[in-house]
Specification:
about 30% helix, about 400 residues, 4-stranded mixed sheet, alpha/beta
């Protein structure tokens, strides 16, 4: 998005091959270039009888939020849509903020959700408030566009600051490409200073790395090397921008040691004390399926908080994990303090190849990737859909081919 707003060809190394990344790239490639989008062909102009340009982002929530702002501030008539599940994921806070800045956006079906009909036009910027309770991407979407607006942007963050490390990562990336930003608590000011073309090497995904931490935790012994990841302190002194890097600290409590070796992480087993644990996912919600499955596989009681937004993901991840973990005797229930408590059975079942444990994917890549490592403890298992992992980690099954996943 930064390169597109800045009007330069991206010089990025290690760009993800995930379906989410490719969906956003394909949508951007199909749009007019930046130097002509403000003055579109007559057939695209409002009021000239042209039909809206349909952009289908499938189940990519990131593309939905980032493209909503992008299309709103560029001339043309656009129809932004996605899968049925995507149409159930909220976008109202972003739409309301853009309307306050002068955008013309209408809901084509249900109020507060995709699909959207957008009459794109230049936006000057100004002052706005944005509720981050449901997603940090609402704020990131506005911030990414702000350096290109004549007035820049003054934005006040409202509500619970969900997934805040992702917002910090957005600001760091913007500064890398020349944006001038003042950030003070819940107030952010972006000055009208266009992006500058610079090279950038993209760090591998710590969310994806979490499944290898789970594999390590469930193994009796291991030495797993993960290339390219930065941690709190590496040989080069580079720190990760990703909040999910906290998985290294959490997994130490579950018997996994992390050695930072130049540009790699080496995971090994260490002794650990089996005791009840507590995890807060307010800043790192994508780690919930991993931690829930790992604790269940290790037969550890755990308490989970900061998970209210998980019902809004690719699936209701709380309901999905509750349903699937019950198949191995684990229970997920809320207590009087509204924390989700995991309790496990005294003994895990074990499944043969002829009668594998059958898990449902719930159409969610993170549910499948979190449950699959349990085959180390449970034996053979099957899923109704293996392809969902392509959304974020297309090579997951290639790397984890030793897991005992026997059929679809």
């Amino acid at each position: 998005m930064i390169a597109t707003y800045g009007g330069f060809a991206p010089d990025f190394q290690n760009l993800s091959d995930s379906k989410d990344t490719q969906t956003l790239l394909e949508a951007l490639r199909g749009l007019p270039p930046m130097d002509s989008i403000a003055d579109p062909p007559t057939h695209q102009r409002n009021g000239n009888g042209g039909h809206p340009r349909i952009i289908d982002i499938a189940d990519c929530g990131t593309a939905a939020r980032f493209l909503t702002t992008f299309l709103a501030c560029h001339s043309g008539t656009w129809f932004l849509t996605g899968t049925e599940r995507m149409k159930q994921r909220p976008i109202k806070p972003l739409v309301e903020a853009l309307r306050c800045l002068g955008a013309s956006i209408q809901y084509a079906e249900k109020e507060g959700f995709l699909p959207l009909k957008i009459e794109g036009k230049p936006i000057s910027g100004g002052k706005v408030q944005i509720d981050m309770s449901q997603s940090s991407q609402f704020a990131s979407s506005l911030l990414l566009a702000a350096p290109m607006w004549p007035q820049g942007l003054e934005m006040e963050l409202l509500g619970k600051l969900s997934s805040f490390p992702y917002l910090e990562m957005t600001l760091t990336m913007m500064r890398h490409f020349g944006a001038e930003i003042e950030f003070n608590g819940k107030m952010t000011k972006v000055f009208p200073k266009p992006y500058q073309s610079r090279n950038f090497t993209i760090e591998p995904d710590w969310s994806a790395a979490s499944y290898w931490y789970e594999i390590a935790a469930l193994s009796e012994a291991c030495e797993i090397r993960l290339h390219g990841l930065c941690g709190p302190s590496t040989g080069s002194g580079t720190a990760s921008l990703q909040g999910d890097a906290i998985i290294a600290e959490w997994m130490k409590m579950l018997g996994v040691s992390t050695l930072y070796d130049c540009d790699s992480l080496v995971l090994t087993k260490i002794p650990f004390e089996k005791r009840p644990l507590r995890f807060d996912f307010s800043a790192t919600p994508d780690l919930f399926p991993t931690m829930a499955a790992t604790c269940a596989g290790l037969q550890l009681e755990a308490r989970f908080s900061g998970i209210s937004n998980l019902v809004l993901k690719e699936s209701d991840r709380i309901g999905a994990m509750k349903t699937e973990l019950e198949k191995i005797g684990a229970k997920l229930d809320y207590d009087s303090e509204n924390e989700l408590v995991l309790k496990t059975s005294a003994q895990l079942p074990f499944y043969q190849r002829s009668h594998p444990l059958r898990f449902a994917s719930h159409g969610d890549h993170r549910i499948v990737m979190a449950l699959a490592p349990l085959s180390i403890s449970l034996g053979h298992m099957a899923f109704d859909c293996l392809e969902v992992v392509e959304k974020s980690y297309p090579n997951y099954w290639l790397g984890a081919s030793f897991l005992q996943i026997v059929t679809r």
